[in-house]
Amino acid sequence: MVAGSSYLDAEPMPALRSLASSVWIQQVGDAPLAQRSVPHGGAEVRCVLGEVPRLLGPLTTAAHLDIPAGGTVVGIRLRPGVVGGLAGMPADELADTDVAATDLWRDLNRLTDTLGDAPTPHAALDQLQRFVGRAAGEADPVVDEAVRRLMPWRAGGPAVLPDLLSISERQLRRRCRATVGMGPKELQRVLRFHGFTARIQAAVDRAEPGDLAGWAVEAGYHDQAHLTRECRRIAGVTPGEFLAQYRAACAGADDHDHVAAYRPMLLGDGRSVQARVLRPA
Q1: 5-135 has which CATH code?
Q2: pLDDT score at 278
Q3: Across-strand partners of 24?
Q4: Up-side HSE of residue 137: CA atoms within 13 Å toward CB?
Q5: 129-162 b/e with 16+ CB inside 10 Å = b?
Q6: Under a CB-based contact definition with an 8 Å cutoff, are residues 190 and 41 in contact?
Q7: Is 167 exposed, middle or buried, given 0-12, 13-18 or 19+ CB atoms closer than 10 A?
Q8: Cβ 221 vs Cβ 228: under 8 Å
Q9: pLDDT one-digit tens code per residue, 107-145
Q10: In angstroms, what CA-CA distances link 45 with 23, 87, 243, 264?
Q11: How far apart are CA 167 and CA 202, in angstroms?
């Protein structure tokens, strides 16, 4: 969510849709940018073309990432529970970290060169998606179901999961930390905030007036005061500031498209528009 750049979110290629929620291409203008990334429950594989790809681990608070002037970034937003199998290590060791991919995967120099030499950003993104598809391990079906049941529109919460999933609370927490990077309670908080973020993105796209109190309840908060506390904790700003910053960066910008990132968090919203699909390069 930054001014001075173009940003296109899109659906991942079909073979990657069980692993990734969206992919993106960002192209930066003449000035370097410090971009805020907010938690969404998953991790991200991102590459400034010409540099080594990096893995942004599962976030519990916002992170700020520097993008050089004139840089082009391609990235993949992984679903919650994927990063542990992809990195081949417990996901909680990657939480709130930004790691050079060379520290995780061998023989990555060839991929770095391939991405940098790609004729278009779309072609580079295709190559990155194919790499992630080959590197990813098997998902944990119990954790997958836990993630589905912790989405903002679902009733219940972490306390009911052990009985529903026929697993002990301790085992569930251990498996969530190993695959998602955080326990069920923290994951619910992150997914709830992601739901609020998605509601802001949709409202800005539709030029809707702000309704922070209504959006708070819609995302699963007790009230607006509860949302304000969580927004300060996670993003470092109030909900009103968060909305104003997003509007300043994206409102009316034809070269910003975040539909693929926010649409999955607005289940049942019949006004949601179709996410863009990138054609293979």
Answers
A1: 2.60.120
A2: 54
A3: 9, 75
A4: 15
A5: bebbbebbeebbebbbebbebbbbeeeeebeebb
A6: yes
A7: middle
A8: no
A9: 677 888 889 899 999 999 999 999 999 888 888 999 999
A10: 9, 11, 26, 19
A11: 36
Phi/psi-derived region of residue 34, left when phi > 0, alpha when psi is between -120 and 50, beta in every other case: beta
| Dihedral pair phi/psi, residue 84, rounded to 5° | -60, -45
| Residue range 176-205, pLDDT digits in tens | 999 999 999 999 999 999 999 999 999 888
What tokens does 122 get?
Answer: 């779309």
181 closest CA partner among 21, 42, 77: 42
72 sits in the region (left: phi over 0; alpha: psi -120 to 50; else beta) called: beta
Strands 63-67 and 33-37, sheet pairing? antiparallel
What is 109-127 written as a DSSP string? HHHHHHHHH-SSHHHHHHH
Alpha-carbon span 53 to 131, nearest angstrom: 11
125, 25 contact by CB (below 8 A)? yes
Instruction: Name the residue with higher pLDDT: 271 or 132.
Output: 132
Q: Which tokens belong to 112?
A: 């770095």
Mean pLDDT on 209-216: 91
Global model pTM greater than 0.85: yes
- As a whole number of angstroms, the distance between CA 108 and CA 90 comes to 21
Per-residue pLDDT, 207: 85
Let me know: does 85 contact 135? Beta carbons within 8 Å. no
d(CA 62, CA 193) in angstroms, rounded, equals: 11
The span from the CA of 19 to the CA of 3, in Å, is 29
DSSP string, 182-200: S-HHHHHHHHHHHHHHHHH
Residues 6+ apart with CB under 8 A from 208: 202
**Which residue has tokens 């309670």?**
185
